[in-house]
Amino acid sequence: MSFFDPSKVPSPSYVVDLQLLERNLGILEQVKVRSGAHVLLALKAFSMFSVFPQIAARLDGICASSPDEARLGREEFGKEVHSYCPAYTEASLQEFLTHSDHLVFNNQRQLQRLLPFIPEHVSIGLRLNPQQQEAEVEIYDPSAPCSRLGTIRDEFDPDLLERIDGFHVHNLCEQDSDSLVRTWEAIERKFGPWLPQMKWINLGGGHHITRADYHVEPLIELVQRIREDYDVEVYLEPGEAVALNTGYFVSTVIDTLHNHMDLAILDSSASCHLPDVLEMPYRPGIIGAGKPGDYPHTYRLGGLSCLAGDVIGDYSFPEPLQLGQRLVFTDMAHYTMVKTNTFNGVRLPSICTFDPKKDQYEVIRTFGYEDFKGRLS
Q1: Which residues of the chain, if any, have pLDDT below 70?
Q2: What integer pLDDT is reported at residue 2 of this predicted model?
Q3: Which end of the chain has a smaller Cβ tally under 10 Å, C or N?
Q4: Using alpha carbons only, what angle is made at residue 115 by residues 113 and 120, rounded to the nearest 5 degrees?
């Protein structure tokens, strides 16, 4: 890990390490080169457009889940734009079409209804639901029972494939390549006869490709086999893997108290700034801290909002926490900036970069009252 000085940035703030980001991009580029896949940045996980030039130098484009993401990708990334939404209105469809090269539909009925509005140059895809449960947390499982995401085999109509160029399969969440292999086996069992009709296959996201213990070789072999067996282009849509372990979240202790245990209040909020802590749930690491009892002084870290459950978690420290002490949370780039909110009028964290090669810290953006007011009326 690069040496990082939290006193060089505002508090609270997200800080992306450009060297760590480049490391991840190098891994993804190698997957591209060796497998022949096209790799897209999933904006739902990481939309920090100030670093898009660095990412665009290695990856092929972006995938979007809303018209605004598609527009951001078109304007700031400048390469391919692939879009998917569980349901389109005529109005939202027109916005998507303005910026998208590929457009994926959730089911064939929706596609047939909106097909007259889609120009011939747009490549159309259909999302499939393989009903192969791999995700460990149900809220993130596209194959959970009664999922609204994708077309199951019983609802699939082979007679309505004439305008469809590709199949889209997003079935994973923070998983290794063995989950993808099982997912693809389910796709072949259920939809195999129609795969040769496709021009492309999109294997979605949820691949933890840049994680240290991820098994890259099975992924590369699977992509190669799909390309050879079906003569298709293959797309991958990692979002989290692009920014995994590249960012910090800097926060400051602003009060301490005691209620059956030591408590600390930070100048940040789980609810507003780290929502995956409550939603996933997820426990981020803190540099120099441990689990409760690892060190002599255990604290429950809480946020600024009035939500009783605005708690980041319990951590232990070698020394008592001091007012004004900076805490540095790790792996805080993906699913952070994209999920923030201003509940209670809590201000959004600053967005920064850190370049270890130059020992350079840059504040990209700060937020204030107008950002809170501008979301309301």
Answers
A1: 1-2
A2: 59
A3: C
A4: 180
**Three-state secondary structure call for residue 160:** helix
**Confidence (pLDDT) at 373:** 97
Side chain identity at residue 166, one-letter code? G
The residue whose two tokens read 């019983």 is 154
Q: Per the structure block, which two tokens stand in for 94? A: 């027109």
Residue (of 133, 261, 242) closest to 186 by Cα position:
133
Cα 337 to its chain centre, rounded Å, is 10
Give the integer Cα–Cα distance in Å for 213 and 153. Answer: 33
Radius of gyration of the chain (CA): 22
What is the Cα–Cα distance from 252 to 266, expressed in whole angstroms? 5
Where are the extended beta strands (E) located within the chain? 13-17, 38-42, 61-64, 80-84, 102-105, 123-127, 166-168, 200-202, 233-236, 247-258, 262-266, 297-302, 311-317, 326-330, 350-355, 360-365
**Residues 89/92/93/96 CA torsion (nearest 10 deg):** -160
- pLDDT score at 281: 85
pLDDT for the residue 19: 97
Given this model, what pLDDT does residue 221 score? 98
**82 closest CA partner among 57, 99, 68:** 99
The answer to whether the CB of 278 falls within 8 A of the CB of 270 is yes
Amino acid identity of residue 374, one-letter, is: G
58 vs 44: CA distance, rounded Å:
19
Cβ atoms of 174 and 208 closer than 8 Å: yes
Digit-coded pLDDT (tens) for 54-102: 999 999 999 999 999 999 999 999 999 999 999 999 999 999 999 999 9
d(Cα 89, Cα 75) in Å, to the nearest integer?
A: 23
